[in-house]
Write a structure and sequence with these properties.
Helix content: under 10%
Length: about 525
């Protein structure tokens, strides 16, 4: 697909964008899939700006790089990833900062991005932050910031265009390694910058076709960031047109500032569509999943899970223990969908043919987490057994065998959920994955093993069902995938990180390790274990 950009695209590069999903996503590694997009658009735009500094209005160069999906469905929320903003300020900016006796500076950026679909528009704010840098002895000052950006969803069919607008740069003078945050100190400076009129395509960054829309817009958007309408509005002014346009405007799901930009993990936060409650938790999970027939293991990168923790209830009587049972519920969370992000796995099929697959795990129902805590009355030691039950279908998005792409079509998936032998089949019938973890805590000592709040290792064994719906144009790939992948005995080991309790967040401090980031995402990103 031909994409409009403000500058030539970068050459494709292999990039591992990690994302993996809670205690139940470990399976994702079993097969191939790429989301509805066939690949990302990698854009890099170099744009001319004019910035207002204490020394006057001066030219600056701004380079913006990001990855956009190649296309999206109507109503499907997505976020540009790998967003980097590099600002080159003239030497006069260095003089303005050294006037405050600074040897270094910390920067944060706020870029207004116009998002347009047909005649309707919205504005998203792309925020970035950077570590302190030393001021150069001479020449320009180059600042590079990174950060997560808001998710966007088109209201219907029609290309979404993204256009760079005004830029604000918050500068906090200090030393090269101890510059204050961008909002602190009397010497802090905010530099306002505006795009010049001669900017290529008026600042157009990317065009993402939505729904049945074609490859993209045929021309750059108007200076305000909106695309030209294909025809007159249905109603004139005074007939409610503005209200209806607001209903049609692209939906921007604003992220809170403060995201840890240096973490190569997907966002994991509650939002307007998923408001938190008093018992809401979120956590990252990662791990490995064996594919027995392939004689290999697939890596499941860190992924997000949103959890609603249940209240403990008294369990059955026991002369030696006080027993409490807790039922919690959870959902995978990736770009407003209950699924894992797409990820790649490579195996040797039948011991000789290399198979590369891109896949996702999709929830077909809510995950259930059953925890039974037994407190020993003699010494108050607690032992907690946890079972995670998750109905997950494996969806194959992309497949390549011995270097040859095979078109699996849009509906290639397992016939049913991945299945495990349930320890309580009478109360939990049906197909679902089961993962188990045990935790123990002795009074005065840290907990060991797995607990829902503090995380730990969960493991299980699953059978991969037969595949269905794989192939196009009369070519049936169901048997190929079933023969090479499906079957029992696939061991799964996943590691859940410390949860962030949204209602009572614990932030990092000299006395606390930290459970939540500033914007209420999980602070801990776990490391997979074999």
């Amino acid at each position: 697909m031909r994409v409009q950009r403000a500058a030539a695209p970068r050459p494709s590069r292999a990039r591992t964008r990690t994302t993996s999903i809670a205690a139940f996503v470990v399976l994702a590694a079993l097969i191939p899939t790429t989301a509805s997009a066939t690949g990302p658009q990698e854009i890099e735009a170099e744009l001319p700006y004019v910035c207002t500094l204490p020394s006057g209005r001066l030219p600056a160069t701004v380079r913006i790089s990001a990855d956009f999906p190649e296309r999206a469905e109507a109503g499907e929320a997505f976020s540009p990833t790998g967003v980097t903003t590099t600002v080159e300020l003239p030497a006069e900016a260095v003089a303005d900062l050294t006037a405050h006796e600074a040897s270094g500076v910390r920067a944060a950026t706020r870029l207004a991005v116009g998002v347009a679909q047909n005649a309707a528009t919205a504005t998203a704010t792309w925020r970035g932050s950077a570590e302190p840098v030393a001021l150069p002895a001479s020449g320009p000052l180059t600042l590079t910031t990174k950060g997560d950006v808001p998710s966007v969803a088109g209201r219907g069919d029609g290309a979404l265009t993204f256009t760079a607008g005004d830029l604000a740069i918050d500068l906090a003078p200090g030393t090269a390694d101890t510059a204050d945050t961008a909002t602190a100190g009397p010497g802090s400076l905010t530099v306002d910058c505006s795009l010049t009129e001669d900017a290529t395509d008026q600042g157009l960054l990317a065009t993402v076709p939505v729904g049945t829309d074609g490859p993209g817009a045929s021309g750059p958007p108007s200076p305000s960031g909106s695309a030209e309408a294909s025809g007159p509005p249905e109603d004139g002014p005074g007939d409610g047109t503005e209200e209806r346009q607001g209903d049609r405007s692209p939906k921007v799901l604003e992220n809170s500032p403060g995201t840890a930009a240096d973490r190569d993990v997907p966002p994991c936060r509650y939002d307007e569509q998923h408001p938190p409650t008093d018992v809401s938790l979120n956590a990252y999970v990662t791990g490995y999943a064996n594919v027995k027939k392939m004689k290999g293991a697939a890596y499941l990168p860190p992924s997000c899970v949103l959890i609603e923790q249940g209240l403990p209830e008294m369990g059955p009587p026991d002369p030696e223990y006080l027993i409490f049972d807790t039922v919690s519920y959870a959902n995978l969370h990736y770009r407003e969908r209950k699924q894992t992000p797409p990820f790649d796995a490579t195996f040797l099929s039948f011991d000789f043919a290399p198979v590369k697959a891109t896949m996702v795990l999709e929830q077909t129902g809510t995950m259930r987490i059953d925890s039974r805590m037994r407190m020993r009355l003699s010494d108050f030691t607690t032992i907690t057994d946890t079972y995670v039950r998750a109905p997950l279908v494996l969806h194959v998005l992309d497949l390549e065998v011995n270097g040859t792409p095979l078109d699996v079509g849009p509906g290639c998936r397992t016939e049913t959920s991945l299945t495990s032998a349930d320890p309580d089949p009478a109360n939990f019938p049906g197909d679902h994955l089961v993962l188990y973890g045990r935790g123990e805590q002795i009074i005065g000592l840290p907990a060991t093993g797995y607990l829902l709040l503090s995380g730990g290792v969960l493991s299980g064994e699953a059978a991969i069902p037969a595949f269905t719906g794989c192939g196009t144009d009369g070519e049936d790939l169901d048997r190929l995938l079933t023969a090479s992948v499906s079957g029992p005995g696939n061991h799964i080991k996943q590691v859940q990180g410390q949860t962030c309790a949204i209602a009572a967040p614990v932030f990092p401090s000299p006395t606390n390790e930290g459970q939540c980031t500033e914007d209420l995402q999980p602070y801990e990103v776990p490391v997979a274990e074999r």
